[in-house]
Amino acid sequence: MTMQADKKGQYGLPDRTIWSDPDIRIVHMASSVFSGQSPEHDHSDCICLFFCLCGKIRVRAVFEGQVRDFWVPDNCCHFHCSPNGCRLECEGDKKSCQGLMVTVGRCLLTRVIAEENAAWIYERIGADQVFAHQQILPMTSGMRSVVNEILHSDFAKGPVHLFYLAKILELICNIVAIDELTPFNESSPSNVQIIQKSIACMEEAMDNPPSIVELAGRAGVSASKLKQLFPHICGTTPYAYLRRLRMEKAISLLRQGEMNVTEVAYAVGYDSISHFSKLFYQYHGMRPSRVRRQACTMMQSGPEK
After folding, report:
1. What string of H, E and C letters represents the secondary structure of the chain?
2. Is 277 a residue whose pLDDT tops 90?
3. What is the pTM of this model?
4. Number of CB atoms found within 10 A of residue 102's CB
5. Distance CA 49, CA 125 (A)
6. At what angle do helices 238-256 and 223-234 cross, to 10 degrees?
7. 179-201, pLDDT tens digit by residue?
8. Which residue numbers delimit the HTH araC/xylS-type domain (predicted)?
9. pLDDT band for position 158 (50/70/90)?
10. What is the pLDDT of residues 200-234, one digit of tens each?
11. pLDDT tens across 235-275, in order?
């Protein structure tokens, strides 16, 4: 994972890989955008832990064509089982965003703790299903204490791997304990599936999207529940999420160079070209006409030799 080591956040710490070996990777995230791929843990799955210390972090997991987005609010943590080769992309909501990402190989956990304990932990986090468990939990004082120890540890020598493994086990114990007692019901697997189904409906009918009531009906919930779930799981409202889908689809179509701006605007559901251009500029920081011109220029010049 490539980090930008010159950017510093609220804690005065730059983006940096704190520790990385075949089994464990710990990364401090202190800038607005950071991305990378889960390390290979003996060609097995890994357990991923995210701790948002300041701001709000969007985590995007991409694996074999599947894409899942989930937001980690301020002072909360998120955990899931990540398949080997899964790409994780993280984005902070502001420059002062702070986070800690921890990944540990499933094989390592199975080796160091009793098999029945490992099986119980994996069951709690849905480790046998890709993206099955997307739990958001509040950080406890115990979690914050362990995170601070990880952030501010300074080993010149000694059993560094053992230290970080012990801290990861502490974090997992804290997470599993609070998940058992006070889970955020909004982030349960069934509710995540409701949101995923709603997003799929939006993507299928972007040019003429269903209303909130229709969307909720297709997902099998009330409109009020859908409006409540969306901000918690996606970090934004259904309408704002639809706009994001439209803007991402629009720039993709423009870069293909086969449609003009008007055609793209209609394709993603905008009748007013000026309104579309305004929203596009707000989202991407450039006019749609400029994106299309760049695409056409690249097509005319052909691939670089």
Report:
1. CCCCCCCECCCCCECEEEEECCCEEEEEECCCEEEEECCCECCECEEEEEEEEECCEEEEEEECCEEEEEEECCCEEEEEEECCCCEEEEEECCCCCEEEEEEEEHHHHHHHCCHHHHHHHHHHCCCCCCCCCCEEEECCHHHHHHHHHHHHCCCCCCCHHHHHHHHHHHHHHHHHHHHHHCCCHHHCHHHHHHHHHHHHHHHHCCCCCCCHHHHHHHHCCCHHHHHHHHHHHHCCCHHHHHHHHHHHHHHHHHHHCCCCHHHHHHHCCCCCHHHHHHHHHHHHCCCHHHHHHHHHHHHHHCCCC
2. yes
3. 0.55
4. 25
5. 11
6. 60
7. 554 444 555 667 777 888 888 88
8. 196-294
9. low
10. 889 888 888 898 888 988 888 888 888 888 887 77
11. 778 888 899 889 988 998 998 888 999 999 999 999 999 99
How many residues comprise the chain? 305
Per the structure block, which two tokens stand in for 185?
Answer: 């019901």
